Amino acid sequence: MRKIDFHKIYLSGNEKKYIEDALNKGNLSGDGFYTKKVSEFLENKFDLIKVLMTTSATHALEMAAQLIDLKEGDEVIMPSFSFSSTANAVIKTGAKPVFAEVKLNNFNLDPADFESKITARTKAVIPVHYAGISCEMKEIKKIAKKNNIYIIEDAAHAVNSFYQGKAAGSMGDFGCYSFHGSKNFVSGEGGAIIINSDQHKLIEKAEIIREKGTNRSSFLRGEIDKYNWVGKGSSYLPSDILMALLLAQLEQIDYITKQRRQIFEFYNQHLEKFLNEDFLEIIPQIPEDRQSNYHLYYLKLKNQKIRDFILKKLRKKGIETAFHFQPLHASPMGKKLGYQKRDLQLTNDIAASMLRLPIYPGLSAADLNYIIAELRNIFLEIKQAGV
Ligand SMILES: *Cc1c(COP(=O)(O)O)cnc(C)c1O
């Protein structure tokens, strides 16, 4: 029997070399040689005005929340179908996360539900580009603009994804990237905040928040002769060692994306025909105006019973699969915020009936054939015997 991991990191080959070089350069703290390299790489590749590398997407989201001065009494609309970090960034400021539905096609924020949840207190919206396929940003931007609401893109899944030619993370006021070990391009822990404004004051405020409330960034650029404590802040900058690792990954961004695309297309090609069966409802579709980074591959089954059946069977065959986000509104913390599980039924249904398949560059053709063969057997069993 084969043993197929759900996720494996891909190493480009230059990681050790760059880490060793970072060690030899002797600066292990933040904003060194490699941090500069990766931020410039991202700015150039994705045509971004300002990128500040962070210790995680969680921290990038926290920075964005502070940059728009979120506070108690404010509300921020976001999909319930996301990771805890999206909501934590808001809660930490005293503001309230307001959970909205996603749409069935891409599991992304439903613009209509976003609009219906706007109140006089709404200060921001956080669209999450799920699985690397961008939200409907044109609609979301229109609604946000009309209502004077900030947009913070949670692009943790979507580094190297595009919407109408624009990079994920470049379309809102702020964008947040993740380079966590589970994402496409990794530094283990790591992220970036994108500031889509050339307003000097705003960029400076971000630098200060990121550098323990000091103007050390200005000092490092030689703009001032000593640095000082000038405002509120924390420490959100990653070690240059991690950024050395990340550079080696980003240099292979096109290769990694291509490998993932091939797997994604292989799955789609072999699973499409089962959409005629009533137990398989959805496989991912990338709309014409979007480019994916192929972060995830998923199936949406008819119900939880069928999903759990397939998951158990695949596991028995050595194939690790996973479901995904447990809806935030139905979590213990969501309940503390006053939500009830029944509040967002579509989100509940998606979370309960979706299954993710392995997708990473290390999967061989034999692995993929094995996964499809086993899935086909399970599908046949469901068709003939039912679940
Ligand atoms: C992974 C993830 C995050 C958090 O990323 P970190 O870099 O691990 O902090 C935030 N939002 C979403 C949607 C994620 O999937």
What do you see in this structure?
The chain has 387 residues and is an alpha/beta fold. The two termini are 25 Å apart. The protein is globular. It has two domains: 15-250, Aspartate Aminotransferase, domain 2; 253-385, Aspartate Aminotransferase, domain 1, CATH 3.90.1150. The strands form three sheets. The protein has a seven-stranded mixed β-sheet, sandwiched between helices. It contains 14 helices and 13 strands. The chain has helices at residues 15-25, 33-46, 57-67, 84-91, 111-116, 137-147, 200-210, 216-220, 240-250, 253-271, 304-316, 332-336, 345-353, 365-385, and strands at residues 50-54, 75-79, 96-100, 122-125, 150-154, 162-163, 166-167, 174-178, 191-195, 280-282, 290-291, 297-301, 354-357. Residues 56-58, 82-83, 85-86, 128, 154, 156-157, 178, 180, 191 line the site of pyridoxal-5'-phosphate (PLP).
Key traits:
Aspartate Aminotransferase, domain 2; alpha/beta; Aspartate Aminotransferase, domain 1; binds pyridoxal-5'-phosphate; 387 residues; single chain
Give a short summary of the structure:
By secondary structure, this protein is of the alpha/beta class. Helices cover 40% and strands 13% of the residues. Pyridoxal-5'-phosphate (PLP) is lined by residues 56-58, 82-83, 85-86, 128, 154, 156-157, 178, 180, 191.
